[in-house]
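Can anyone check this?
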Amino acid sequence: MGIKEILLLSLIFLFLCGCAPRHPVMVEDIQPEPGDFFSGRGHVLKPQVLADQIRDKDYILIGESHDNPCDHKVQAEIIGLLGKAGVNAVIALEMVTVPKQNVLDEFNQGLISLEELPVKLEWDQRWGHDFELYRPIFKQALEHKISVKALNAPQEVVRKISHYGLEGLDNEDWRYLPHEIIPPKQEQLDYLKMQFEVHEQFIPEDRADFEHFIQAQSAWDTQMAAMALYWRKKTSKTVVVLAGLDHVRLGWGIEHRLNIISPGKDITRIVPVRDPGDISNNDPFYFFCPAVAQERVRFGLLFTTDNDKIFLRGVMPGSSADHAGLRSGDRIVRAGGKEVTEVGDLHRAAKKAVQEETVLKLEVIRDNEIKLFELALPGED
């Protein structure tokens, strides 16, 4: 999937994550350190205990936020634990498309160095997130002689689906996808439909078709599940899948598809958590990593509402909002010259500013005074 589509779908799911269903459990009363592991019941797990509990699985799905360095360090640690335990495994990556498997093969054989790998993979053009974040994973693969495999469909194919739907694909495109695209579970579909309708004002018009969005997501997840099954059959090894959080959490993405195309297999998932209070029995294992700014709304604002009033409850350090001078506690009263009484008003004003390639003008109340701010919004690229 291309950088633009990754950012778009990530934006949608960043909104959705904040509203996700949770069933919290009582977590042990500790101050967690980055990289600490937890069971779904909230118990702290030593790394070796986690390794012992996952070592015999057919598939281990490890979630991530793509721009969070801690997430990738923990993924690398888990791979190292499996390597030290002698687990025969392969690492399967959402970040690499299937046509680039020949490059990974050369890397696995020692014909391409770690320094050459991002250039050969066209990493910056095809994935876009800093390769340095992923370097620890590849280093562990080298150290423990674990092969690295590709999972994803070519970004051009998924881009077509997001614009035109599955009917927009030709025979050449279908070479890179399973013949049957598996839809989401009904519970996820209902949830996504509700949230998509809330936030669709902020989605570019040429990709605001919910059916196409679901088809693109389904193709993405079905393709990764199919390739995970392929590598399992081909190697007879444990397949460690590294993918974005929303492809892993709750078993809604890749795991749902694996359970259909590879029934009876032993699958587990390990997902990052930013607040131990969010640990629930919805997922079997967690690791704690603090949030980074890129994981939130793209222009850096977190909102709260009170009787048709919109307040800022957080401003991400280093974000556009931070640079503009906005602060937690500010009340937004106008955006783009129009009154703001709900978050949707702000989304619509932001979308208009992006389309017109201009700044978003905000009027806020701070200390009983009206203050004006101009917020530079990131474009789709």
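Reply from J.R.: I decoded it. Confidence is low (pLDDT under 50) at residues 1-23, 293-298.
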